[in-house]
Amino acid sequence: MRISYVGLALIGFVLCDGHSVQAARQQASQSTSAQGNAGAGRAVFNGKGVCYYCHGVDGQMEKRPQLAADTAALIARLSPPPADLRNSKTLHLKNDKQRAKAVREGHPGTGMFPDTTMTNQELADTLAYLALLRKGGAAAPK
Ligand code: HEC
After folding, report:
1. What is the three-class DSSP state of 11?
2. How far is the CA of 55 from the centre of ligand 1 (A)?
3. Which residue is closest in CA terms to ligand 1's atom 24?
4. Is the pLDDT at 31 greater than 60, yes or no?
5. What is the pTM of this model?
6. Is the CB of 106 under 6 A from ligand 1?
């Protein structure tokens, strides 16, 4: 069932009404204060956040999971393609406020859809994990 999650979420994003976007905005504005834990963030990244579908397991682009053919095709068609979160030279966003917004509201002009299911703590943890990846990418933080 999880395999079709990205496809469903993409459809959900298209159908998404103003109300849930509004709710996500309110959460986003509260989300930058919590302290993040990179280890917990890794679990979110490779788990319920489904970040690994597009960005690869542990942010390693060559390690994408085996997905249903239609979902994989959808991701392959994304333009621009998903960012390499381990390569700080090619990343565009400047700070965690922008990154939190990208996760909560979707990354503008790209196929990255909003995540409305993470708690503020999970978001803070994910941001801490992203910071670790940018620093040289420990695949398995202790
Ligand atoms: C459907 C595929 C998809 C999923 C799922 C996805 N992303 Fe993305 N992500 C993208 C694309 C496409 C971009 C834009 C790349 C670009 O602008 O060059 C992006 C960009 C980003 C950026 C901005 C990078 C920069 O330029 O600074 C961050 C941070 C990011 N994603 C984190 C996440 C996190 C965390 C998750 C999980 C909550 C996630 N993504 C889930 C496709 C995805």
Report:
1. helix
2. 7
3. 91
4. no
5. 0.79
6. no
